[in-house]
Structures are given as structure tokens and as C-alpha cells.
Input
Amino acid sequence: HLLSEFTALENAMLPSLIGGGNFADAKKRASMLLDEVGLSARLDHKPGELSGGEQQRVAIVRAIAQSPEVILADEPTGNLDTKTGEEVFELLLRLNRDKNIAIVAVTHNESIAKRLSRRILMTDGKIAEL
Output
């Protein structure tokens, strides 16, 4: 849910600005985070000019802009092709490992779910397996 009228950089800056941060600090942090996810050359592109995977990475950067302890990810790879989905999933795992951010992900993708450190399987709205 990136805002279409804003660039990748502006979208990534929003949480910091809304949280009361100053413009220069928000821009610096967003630029640094976008660079970390390989988007330094796409800062001035609007969402419609980005691929699905690039859009997802901007959304992830926006989610971590304020250094949260937890990211809630609902089907984080659902609209992506297999290769791009794998790249986004690896990014989430890296955030978990390197920045100690807990990732709570909902997915129907069993190959991704099997690689998570903890899984809760639900069937028909009930916990089937812990």
C-alpha cells in the first residue's frame, strides 16, 4: 500500500515524519535503508515505476523506518513471482537475524513456512499444529 503520488524515498520517509522526526534525518535514514535493500538507484521512482519486488522492498523499508521490534507480514510474497518472492523472504530473514526484528508472517506458501524457526498451522480457522 505505497502511496502512488510519492517516490520510493518519500514513501520510506513517511513513518519518521509522521513520528515527529525532522526532514533531513528522515531522508538520511530512508536513503540508508533503501540502499541496504538494493534500491539506491530507484529513490526517485514512484510505485508505478517499480517492479512488484521493488515495491515490496520499499514497503518493508517503510515498516522498519522506526526500528520496530516486530513486523506483521500478511502474505509478504503472495503477489510476487517465485524468484522475487524468495528475495523478499530472504530480506525478512535477514532483518530478523541482523536487526533482531521479530517477523510474524501469514502465508500459504509451505516452502517458505517450512524455513521459519517457529510455525503455527491453522486449518479451517483452528490451530492444527504448534
